[in-house]
Amino acid sequence: MIYSYCKKCQRDSLGEVCAGCGRRIPIAAQRDVWSVSSVPASDGRIWRSAFLAVLLAAALLFAVVLGLEAFADGSKVPALLSGPFPRLTAAMVPLGMAVVFLFLALQGREVNVYTLEQKGAHLTTWHAPQKWRSWARLQSADPGKNQKQQDGSIMHRSQDRHIRWEDVQAVQYKQNRSEIFLYHTPHCAPLILKLPADEYELAAAYVNKYCKGK
Question: Which residue in 23, 83, 89, 207 is deepest, having the highest Cβ count within 10 Å?
Answer without folding.
Answer: 207
